[in-house]
Amino acid sequence: MGAYEVMLEATIGYLEGERESGRRHVNVKREKLATLLQPLPSAPGEGDALESLRQRALACAKCDHLVASRKQVVFGVGNPAADLMFVGEAPGADEDELGEPFVGQAGKLLTKIIDTMGLSRGEVYIANILKCRPDTPGRSTGNRQPTLDEMKTCVPWLHEQIDLIQPRVLVALGKTAVGGLLEKEVAITRFRGQWQEYRGIPLMPTFHPAYLLRNQSLAEKRKIWEDMLAVMDRLGMEISEKQRGFFLKARG
64: Cβ–Cβ under 8 A, 6 or more apart, which residues? Predict the structure, then answer.
């Protein structure tokens, strides 16, 4: 029994005792009555809890080299009660500048993929394992992949995000993200399209959108789309014949 139920039961018991003793009125101080008449405060929702977590993450200083080079922490974006959550490896230069994951060219392609699934960015949740852009000492441009150690240090933030959002399906984008979640080196061509489990949630490994920017063949596009069809099916989403046929070679 919760504290509210205990207090309510005790109050009812007291009032019943007063009635049995013949009392018809209970004296209540005016200021106490005013407090009792106030509406109950709402319980914190998923969005409030996620925002509280974000504020804590913004102050993270676990990795000196990343704190020194980052412009800002890139926490995550989307629906705090999403059924579907996409997880990448780390922010790049564009994300570090804007403070939002997947906003560069690869991010635009991810948005197209989400749209083609019949969803929007606002309906899913998007985050990276690493919340800071990996530093690039001696280089003024370009990005680098995060190390397994860096991801291991930062992944507790992602764990808290997952625990708060409680998505029904996770999608890991690319070899580095899959390896970071599974804590081992992986061959993405072997893992891609094969259901895994992460923190008790079905996990679909697939190619990073950046891979499709470099390899724009119909066959490669079809592979990642087949993974998304499997995700849609797992979520119980309606799949049209048109969607099922995307990126298939036309029959001659």
Answer: none
Query: What amino acid is encoded at 56 in this protein?
Result: R
Q: Are the C-beta atoms of residues 95 and 146 closer than 8 Å to each other? A: no
pLDDT in tens, 102-113: 999 999 999 999
Q: Are 215 and 247 in contact (CB under 8 A)?
A: no
The Cα–Cα gap between 236 and 239 comes to: 9
pTM: predicted TM-score of the whole model, two decimal places: 0.81
Q: Tell me the CATH number at 92.
A: 3.40.470.10
Does 12 fall in a domain?
Answer: no
Give per-residue pLDDT as tens, 181-218: 999 999 999 999 999 999 999 999 999 999 999 999 99
Chain Cα centroid distance, residue 31: 44
Print the domain residue range for 60.
46-134+143-244
